[in-house]
Amino acid sequence: MEKRPSARVLKRLFVRFGEQLPMHVGYTTDISATGLFIKASTIFPPKTVLKIALTLPDERVVLLSGEVMWSKRVPPQLARLVRKNGMGVRLQQPDPTYLGLFQPAG
Predict the structure, then answer these.
(1) CA-CA distance, 44 to 71, in Å (whole number)?
(2) Beta partners for 55?
(3) Count of C-beta atoms within a 10 Å radius of residue 62
(4) pLDDT tens string for the chain (106 positions)?
(5) In CATH, what class is 9-99?
(6) For residues 39 and 54, what is the distance between their CA atoms, to the nearest angstrom?
(7) What pLDDT shows up at residue 8?
(8) Does residue 101 contact residue 56 with C-beta atoms inside 8 Å?
(9) How would DSSP label each residue in 28-75?
(10) What pLDDT shows up at residue 83?
C-alpha cells in the first residue's frame, strides 16, 4: 500500500541542503509535489528540518524547506551501488515554481 499522497517522478536534480544553510551537496533521484529523495554522502537523521536549494532543469534555483522522514546511510565504498543511500524529505509549503514541475506542459 502506497503511503505517499502524491506520485513520485524519477528526476535527477542538483541540490544543496543543510540545517541552517544549504551547504551540503547531493542530487534527487525522485521527486513529488509533497517530497523528494536526496542522495548524498551527508545524511541527517529523521525529524531534522532542512533548508534546500534545488536547481531546476532551466538552472533556476528554488528554495525549499522540508523534514527528513527517513534516512539510510551505507558505507562510502557502497554508496554508488546502493540506490537508496540518502534521505526521504517531506516538503513544508512547496514553492509554486517547484510545484510547476508537476503540471502538464501546455
Answers:
(1) 7
(2) 61
(3) 19
(4) 455 567 888 899 999 999 999 999 999 999 999 999 999 989 999 999 999 999 999 999 999 999 999 998 776 665 566 557 899 999 999 999 999 988 776 5
(5) mainly beta
(6) 13
(7) 82
(8) yes
(9) EEEE-SSEEEEEESS-PPTT-EEEEEEEPTTS-EEEEEEEEEEEE---
(10) 59
- Give the total residue count for the chain: 106
β partners of residue 10: 30
**Collapsing DSSP states into helix, strand and coil, what is residue 10?**
strand
- 37 is written with which cell numbers? 529523495
Residue pair 83/74 in contact by the 8 Å Cβ criterion: no
Please tell me whether the overall predicted TM-score, pTM, comes out greater than 0.70 for this model.
yes
- For residue 91, what are the β-bridge partners? 66
- What are the domain boundaries of the chain? 9-99
Identify residue 57 by its one-letter amino acid code. P
